[in-house]
Amino acid sequence: MHSQGLAGGVAHSYQASACKTPARRQTVNVIGDSHAGAYLPMLEQLSADTGVSVHLYTYPSCPFLDLSQPQGRYRDPGCLAFSQQVLKKIAEESRPDDVLFMPSLRMPRYGDQWASFNIPDMHERIYNPAAEKDRAEALAEAQGWLQPLAQRGLRLVFEAPKPIFQAPTFRCADAFNRHNPICVGDNQQPRSTLLDLRAPVLNGMQRLSQQVPGLSIWDPLPVLCPGEVCSSLREGRPLFFDGDHPSAYGNWVLYPDFKRMILSFPEAAPAP
Questions:
Q1: What is the band of 206 on the pLDDT scale with cuts at 50, 70, 90?
Q2: Which of 202, 221, 225, 272 has fewest C-beta within 10 Å?
Q3: H or E element: which one contains 102?
């Protein structure tokens, strides 16, 4: 792995070597915030298994096209410049059939590792008129970010919103933490609640996929939550680190489906 700074963010690169089978010629570019960085184990394994080159670009608290608000609004001023520079770099260096994967949270958080944000009604926070207005503006703007990449023949992949939980898993996974005030929700969420909360963003992604050539959606929720109740634990192992970042184990659970998705794309043509 090689890491370097880029426009206030960080770029990680994986390049497989000594492959026993012919390496795929594709490059998988990944852009986002800490939720993109949380997929490092999965991305490293993908490069090792298939030979693809992986370039991950991350900037703290800077989701790329989170579809809840325009890219530059309410963010660190460097976020917009970072997003612009990374997309310029990808457009200049990528070949047709390379991939741009865009994982981010794209939903409000119930809290961080240390405190609850005390959101009594997440549905109201997501569905109120001001939030709906911000989403409409974000959706109108998003096509302009994506079209130049689509015109170059890139495969564009949104990550559909993952489950979100009311408490940080690493503080609430053990029985002796049961009475910790931050451990709300018993590490669980009804699937129906999560589908309702993510519906506006997912609808926006689906609309964009009809407008932008080569844009698709990878949905981790069915893998992480196959039943009617979603849990941040599986067989006692944490699928999530906190309330929304996947753990290393969560990466291994998701990896087969993610790899299947990447391998479903046609392989890039040899460079002339």
A1: very high
A2: 272
A3: strand 99-102
Q: What string of H, E and C letters represents the secondary structure of 31-83? A: EECHHHHCCHHHHHHHHHHHCCEEEEEECCCCCCCCCCCCCCCCCCHHHHHHH
d(CA 92, CA 10) in angstroms, rounded, equals 19
Cβ-based neighbours of 247, under 8 Å, separated by 6 or more: 169, 238, 239, 240, 241
Question: Do residues 232 and 169 touch, judged by C-beta distance below 8 A?
Answer: yes
**CA–CA gap between residue 256 and residue 203 (Å, rounded):** 25
At the topology level of CATH, where does 2-160+191-226+248-263 sit?
Answer: Rossmann fold (3.40.50)
Which DSSP helix (H) or strand (E) runs through 255?
A: helix 248-263
8 A C-beta contact, residue 111 and residue 167: yes
Q: What stretch of H or E contains 9?
A: strand 9-14
Whole-model pTM: value is: 0.90
Tell me the CA distances in angstroms from 187 to 62, 173, 214, one per residue in order: 26, 7, 36
pLDDT computed for residue 188 by the predictor: 78
Residues 137-142, mean pLDDT to the nearest whole number: 93
Beta strands in 141-257 (DSSP E): 155-159, 188-190, 215-218, 229-231, 233-234, 237-238
Provide the percentage of residues in the chain whose pLDDT is more than 90.
56
Dist CA 53 CA 24 (whole Å): 8
Average predicted confidence (pLDDT) for the chain: 86
Q: What are the residue ranges spanned by the domains of the chain?
A: 2-160+191-226+248-263
| 6 C-beta neighbours (distance < 10 Å), count | 16
